[in-house]
Specification:
It contains ten helices and four strands. The protein is mainly alpha-helical and 287 residues long. A two-stranded antiparallel ribbon has the order 1-2. Strands 3-4 form a two-stranded antiparallel ribbon.
């Protein structure tokens, strides 16, 4: 083998082992999920084209069913690891949680029922209420943790205060980023020339660009974070992510202006640039 062909400096016979090692380094679990998110918009978008929505939803249902079967079947290999929490509630804590959960569910059902009977319940108003609840829950949680005793040390309290800012940064990032399957998808559908290298594609196909660029840039950012080591902290990475997603919407603002003037926006400008500028956060999440 010493005088034969080599594969990245390794004997050719070890090429399979080399490829397997690299695949595992990029997270086998994460890569499978990314591959699924890459192919799903392609398949579902193609099936749903031409008002064949039943085929699109049917394909999604089949995919989720297969994923559930694989989860249950593959769970046997875990041999019970992770099935039970390490710190379980005491019987008294479980009873208290059950009472609070039951009370909260009952109040929600009664409130929604009364609201519906008044005839003022609408989707828009319900969305506003849910949004307020989503904002109030973390505020109440962090206030409960920081203002209560809970046997926290001063160092733990300081860490929790620092985490609040990371929590807010992550919430803002994903609030903006997850506009991709909603507002930005509609922008691609109605205001974008969906011609890729002369091939007409579906608007849903643009959703596959995100996982595609994740697969491309994960190795790049994985190597970058390892190389930088502790010289770049987690808060700095969060800050960089927020700056990049903000700049990406500057690019989208320019694309929207082009769409208003010219009727349609340049495809590669509106979608590809935004994905490129945001992918580093996914590399960090997969790591």
């Amino acid at each position: 083998m010493a005088g034969g062909r080599t594969f990245f400096g390794h004997p050719w016979g070890l090429a399979t082992l080399f490829g397997t090692e690299m695949w595992e380094r990029f997270s086998w679990y994460g890569m499978r999920a990314i591959l699924a998110t890459f192919f799903a918009p392609l398949v579902v978008g193609w099936l749903a084209a031409g008002d064949r929505w039943h085929l699109g939803f049917g394909a999604a249902a089949v995919g989720m069913a297969l994923g559930l079967i694989q989860y249950v079947w593959g769970g046997r290999s875990l041999r019970g690891v992770g099935e039970r929490p390490g710190l379980r509630l005491s019987p008294g804590e479980r009873r208290r949680f059950g009472r609070l959960a039951g009370l909260g569910t009952g109040v929600a059902v009664v409130a929604l029922g009364w609201w519906a009977l008044t005839g003022t319940l609408t989707i828009d108003r319900l969305t506003i209420v849910i949004t307020v609840i989503i904002l109030a829950v973390p505020i109440a949680y962090f206030a409960y943790i920081l203002m209560g005793g809970h046997h926290l040390t001063e160092d733990e309290r300081d860490r929790m205060k620092a985490y609040i800012w990371l929590f807010i940064a992550a919430a803002v990032f994903w609030m903006i980023y997850d506009l991709a399957p909603t507002k930005l998808l509609f922008f691609a559908q109605h205001h974008t020339d969906l011609s890729l290298f002369g091939i007409q594609i579906q608007a849903a196909t643009t959703q596959s660009f995100n996982p595609l660029f994740i697969m491309i840039f994960v190795p790049v950012f994985a190597a970058l974070w390892v190389r930088l080591g502790t010289r770049v902290s987690t808060p700095q990475k969060f800050g960089f992510a927020l700056v990049m997603v903000g700049l990406s919407f500057v690019a989208m603002a320019i694309a929207a202006a082009l769409a208003i003037v010219a009727g349609v926006a340049l495809f590669m400008f509106t979608r590809r640039l935004r994905v490129l500028m945001a992918e580093h956060y996914h590399a960090e999440a997969i790591l």
